[in-house]
Amino acid sequence: MVEGIPERVSVPESYVEVSGSGATFMSSDLFERGIPFGLPLEDRLTGVTVTPAMIAEEFHKAGIWTASDIRKNPKAAHGAVLAASRDILAQIQHLVAEYERKED
């Protein structure tokens, strides 16, 4: 578990309590005994970097040069930020494929 990052765990149903309002909860010490569930991206992503220069390059490729360009076309700005992180997405897709092969 990485400090400050929410974690999902699998626990026996007997660990879970239901309040009078119907909300479910459990004590933190029981939570810590749970089995981690999900993709451990925080442990597996390596060399993840998006620099201001990478974002600026993608903005320019998208024709975004001024504050007015961003206001007029926020979708293009969003797309440019995503494009700057394409290597991160490719790494995540590779990890997902690995994870799925292990589950089969």
Give me the secondary-structure topology.
Elements: E1 9-10, E2 17-18, E3 24-25, H1 28-31, E4 35-36, H2 41-44, H3 52-61, H4 67-72, H5 74-84, H6 86-103
Antiparallel strand pairs: 1-4, 2-3
Helix pairs in contact: 3-5
Quick summary of this structure?
The protein is mostly helical and 104 residues long. It is 51% helix and 8% strand.
Please mark out the parts with pLDDT under 50 across 5 or more consecutive residues, or reply none.
Answer: none
Mean pLDDT: 87
Number of strands: 4
Overall, the morphology is elongated
SSE series:
EEEHEHHHHH
Give the helix level as a range of percent: 40-55%
Tally of helical segments: 6
SS-based structural class? mainly alpha
**For the report, how would you describe the main beta sheet?**
2 strands, antiparallel
Percent range for β-strand residues? 5-15%
Spatial order of strands in the largest sheet? 1-4
Note down, in words, how this protein is organized:
This protein has helices at 28-31, 41-44, 52-61, 67-72, 74-84, 86-103; strands at 9-10, 17-18, 24-25, 35-36. The chain is mostly helical and 104 residues long. It has a two-stranded antiparallel sheet with strand order 1-4. A two-stranded antiparallel ribbon has the order 2-3. Helix 3 (52-61) crosses helix 5. The relative contact order is 0.12.
